[in-house]
Amino acid sequence: MTPQQLLGAGVRLFAIWLALTSIGYFGSIPAALAASPVDSGSSMTVAYAIGAAYLTGALLLWFFPMFTAHKLLPRTSHSNHINVHGHELARVGCALMGLWLSAKALPTVMWLLFRAFLFVEAGSTFSALPPESKLDVAVALFELLLGTVLIVKSGLFAKAVVPRLEMPPRTSVDL
Question: Is the pTM of this model over 0.90?
Answer without folding.
Answer: no
